[in-house]
Design a protein that fits this description.
Layout lengths: L3 E6 L4 H12 L4 E8 L4 H10 L3 E4 L2 H10 L6 E4 H9 L6 E4 L7 H9 L3 E4 L2 H18 L3 E3 L2 H10 L7 E8 L17 H4 L9 H9 L1 H13 L7 E5 L5 E7 L4 E5 L5 H9 L30 H12 L3 H17 L5 H14 L8 H18 L6
Parallel strand pairs: 1-2, 1-5, 2-3, 3-4, 5-6, 6-7, 8-9
Antiparallel strand pairs: 8-10, 10-11
The chain binds magnesium ion (MG).
Length: 388
């Protein structure tokens, strides 16, 4: 069998580098055909040499110019802008595209990849939260699989394989509870950014680590699950599971539950997407059952995690409400990291923005991006009123 050619959009981030580690572990099964990043071209030099990549793209044209001028990429085609990312995603030989660009920059390239019938391993939450309607429609029209990289959704995807829809009663997303799971509620107003960035189990970027502490991340994941598995928000549960070993569960019609377990290492879900539907040894630690292993689960406390309830309300409202939630949360997290907002102010700003900006059914991607922009400006206008 020929190695399966893959393209990575967002190659320099944590998902991108773990994808390269998985590719390194399976040289006879996977070949890296294209790499794309926003601007950090220097970090592409090593992977391009190691994997003999012939085409790269940089979203930032200035970075593409710098990469060309550097002479560090002999014989490599260097593309730029959104069109460049799209070209890498749609290279004729590419079989699977890992879509891991932060924000909305990956939206057009990912939709193009789906239309070109590529398998898409989706890591960017924003694409489903903002444009779930359009992304799932494109995948369905092309008859190509949308494979979730997010560990919870990947777990559910694994659990649903081979099952009839009628067997599925509910989905259960697990949540670590984040950095302030055990902090007394009264102390949350005084927690620092450094404390919020200390995630107990996963090693992730700063935005998602803070989103874990507020559970805005789990709220976004409820919205993702709603699109990926075509179930309403009301049939998607969330449970706090501090060990991050159970990645999610499915409640079956008869009342029994099935779970997927593995150590908290993104190599597992990434490899599952890249080799789908094959299962082979993963280059990550195994779960050690020779020592006692405790697995706890408890319901999330709404007073501790108001962002989860806000995200659920946005999911239930539908239309552009999830885009408004997402944009407001991004502005709020930025303000918190900059020291302009106390930790509980994140949820407060999200709530106020959701009240201030009306949601509607988007007819196009432009409608979604307009809602995103409106929510960002509303949140930026409202933030000073909540300053610490
Ligand atoms: Mg997740």
């Amino acid at each position: 069998m020929e190695p399966r050619p893959i393209a990575i959009l967002g190659a320099t981030g944590s998902i991108g580098t773990t994808t390269l580690a998985v590719a390194r572990a399976h040289p006879t099964l996977l070949r890296v055909a294209g790499l794309a990043a926003r601007s950090r071209w220097e970090e592409l030099v090593g992977p391009v040499q190691e994997f003999r990549v012939r085409t790269i793209a940089l979203a930032d044209p200035a970075a593409a110019a710098a990469a060309r001028a550097s002479g560090a990429f002999p014989g490599v085609r260097i593309l730029e802008g959104t069109d460049g990312l799209t070209e890498v995603a749609c290279l004729p030989e590419v079989h699977t595209v890992v879509s891991a660009v932060v924000g909305t920059a990956g939206l057009a390239p990912t939709l193009a990849a789906l239309r070109a019938r590529k398998h898409v391993a989706l890591a960017s939450k924003e694409l489903l939260v903002l444009a779930g309607k359009f992304v799932t429609a494109a995948a369905q029209a092309a008859g190509t699989p949308l494979l979730p990289v997010d560990s919870e959704h990947n777990a559910i995807h694994q659990l649903l394989r081979g099952k009839e829809r009628a067997e599925i009663a509910r989905l259960v997303l697990t949540a670590s509870g984040g950095a302030f799971r055990d902090t007394p509620l009264a102390e949350l107003a005084n927690v620092t950014v450094a404390q919020a960035l200390r995630h107990p189990n996963w090693n992730m970027g700063p935005k998602v680590t803070i989103d874990s502490a507020t559970m805005a991340n789990k709220g976004l994941e409820v919205i993702e699950a709603r699109w990926l598995f075509d179930l309403p928000e009301s049939r998607i549960d969330v449970v706090v599971h501090p060990q991050s070993i159970i990645h999610s569960l499915v409640t079956l019609t008869d009342g029994s539950l099935q779970a997927q377990l593995s150590p908290p290492d993104m190599a597992y879900p990434i490899q599952d997407c890249l080799l789908f539907p094959r299962r082979l040894p993963c280059p990550a630690p195994r779960l050690d059952l020779s020592a006692p292993l405790g697995l706890a689960m408890s319901p999330p406390d709404p007073a501790r995690y108001p962002c989860l309830g806000l995200a659920r309300a946005a999911a239930a409202a539908g239309g552009t409400a999830p885009a408004i939630f997402n944009a407001a949360n991004e502005v709020a997290v930025e303000a918190f990291v900059a020291g302009r907002l106390a930790f509980p102010g994140i949820a407060e700003l999200v709530a106020r923005t959701l009240s201030a900006v009306a949601a509607r059914e988007p007819g196009s991607l432009e409608d979604v991006l307009a809602a995103d922009a409106d929510a960002r400006s509303a949140a930026s206008r409202l933030a000073p009123g909540l300053a610490r």
